[in-house]
């Protein structure tokens, strides 16, 4: 839809690894996802541990666990630990020398996960990327982005509410590639000393002025030809207009502020009346 991106979501590659279900115990601070739901979250007690086959996804840094139902997984940067009660899977490396742990990524709980499962054509977040994440909440998706970028990458995660900000900060203690920032994303000057130049800005702040928040942050931190990924919840911008009209007007705002839209896709059926837009940043002519 929109500017392209029609590929299927679960594009497995070569290099399968086999292994077993892990315990699936997690810290699960938000109390969600324990042993219920169709997506298998919180299950995986390890009883009669089943074989798992993991294949690389066509987007680098993401993997697919093959089975009755394929699931999206990321390679756990901190083996042995879940972040929000998600199931973990252990597989052998190709040379059978090492065990590799993966975490199941539930698209119902993550806009980025939903975009990947939904078939986004290009994914600028990859191993080694520097990402500014606006609207980190308690870190559910931030933790998967941390897995995706790996030890060579960085995730600067901004969240202005104190309670989720505390969870985010605690999670970052175990994940050295996350820099938690408890600040208002409308005030990037307050955290400019903490954030370096980034390759990608991912935004999920669910605010009516989100496009402005993103381009303002881009003018501070995003390199030219860097990428913007923005999750748009139509009702947060204008609850009276048709979602498609809201998405189009948000894309227009991005365009006016130096972004060239590349792709737009719906996040249905995982997130109702949400779209994700991918754009390239050409630099803003406006002053900060
Ligand atoms: C939809 S939730 C984000 C969920 C998260 N991205 C995930 O997938 O786990 C939106 C978050 O944005 C935060 N937020 C809203 N406005 C913000 C702002 N101006 N600055 C920083 N965070 C903001 C909210 O507190 C909330 O935690």
TrEMBL record:
Keyword Transport: no
Region (Disordered): 1-66
Locations listed in the record: Nucleus, Nucleolus
Top-level taxon in the UniProt lineage: Eukaryota
Transmembrane residue ranges: none
Gene Ontology CC terms, in alphabetical order: box C/D methylation guide snoRNP complex; small-subunit processome
GO molecular function terms noted in the UniProt entry: histone H2AQ104 methyltransferase activity; RNA binding; rRNA methyltransferase activity
Catalytic activity: L-glutaminyl-[histone H2A] + S-adenosyl-L-methionine = N(5)-methyl-L-glutaminyl-[histone H2A] + S-adenosyl-L-homocysteine + H(+)
GO BP terms in the entry: box C/D sno(s)RNA 3'-end processing
Database matches in Gene3D superfamilies: Phosphorylase Kinase, domain 1 (3.30.200.20), Vaccinia Virus protein VP39 (3.40.50.150)
NCBIfam families: PRK04266.1-2
The family this protein is said to belong to: Belongs to the methyltransferase superfamily. Fibrillarin family.
Official protein name in the record: rRNA 2'-O-methyltransferase fibrillarin
Record organism: Polarella glacialis (Dinoflagellate)
Origin organism lineage: Eukaryota, Sar, Alveolata, Dinophyceae, Suessiales
